[in-house]
Amino acid sequence: MDSERIKGLIDLLAESDLLELSLTEGDSTLRLFKQAGKVVATESLADVSPTPVVVAAPAPASSAATIEVKASLYGVLHLTPAAGEAAFVAVGDQVEAGQTLAVLEAMKMFHPVKAKAAGKITAILARSGAEVEAGQALFRLG
C-alpha cells in the first residue's frame, strides 16, 4: 500500500464518526482506529510484526458549538439539486435553520436534509452519490 493512500485513509477516518477502519490487500492489512483524539495506524505484512504509527487527528470542536446534521433515513445522498448544477452548500457557507443542505433519495422519493439550526458549514462528511445510513452524520455546523 502506498503512503498517499494510507494518508488519505487516515484523513478520512479523522474526519468521520467511524471509530475503526480495516483494509486488506494481498498479504498486507491496514487497521486504523481512533483513540483519545488520535488516529492510530497499524500495518502488517506477511512476515513483519505490526508497527503502530500515531498521527495526530484534528482536535475535536467543542460539542456545545458543533451541530451534526444526520441522515433521517437510508438512501442515496445528493449534494446538488440536479446533475451539472451547483451544490446546495459548500464548506464555509453560512446557513439558516431550515435551509436545505442536500436531498436523500429513497425508493425514488427525494427527502430534503435541512439544517436544524443556523451556523457555518465546517465539514461535509459524505460524498454525493454515496449510500448513507439512517443516523449517519452528513454535515457539521459550527
From TrEMBL:
GO biological process, one term: fatty acid biosynthetic process
The keyword Lipid biosynthesis is annotated on this UniProt entry: yes
Domain Lipoyl-binding, first and last residues per copy: 66-142
InterPro entries, sorted: AcCoA_biotinCC (IPR001249), Biotin_BS (IPR001882), Biotin_Carboxyl_Carrier/Decarb (IPR050709), Biotin_lipoyl (IPR000089), Single_hybrid_motif (IPR011053)
The keyword S-adenosyl-L-methionine is annotated on this UniProt entry: no
Metabolic or biological pathway: Lipid metabolism; fatty acid biosynthesis
Gene Ontology cellular component annotations, sorted alphabetically: acetyl-CoA carboxylase complex
Keywords: Biotin, Fatty acid biosynthesis, Fatty acid metabolism, Lipid biosynthesis, Lipid metabolism
Single GO MF descriptor: acetyl-CoA carboxylase activity
Its job: This protein is a component of the acetyl coenzyme A carboxylase complex; first, biotin carboxylase catalyzes the carboxylation of the carrier protein and then the transcarboxylase transfers the carboxyl group to form malonyl-CoA.
Protein name: Biotin carboxyl carrier protein of acetyl-CoA carboxylase
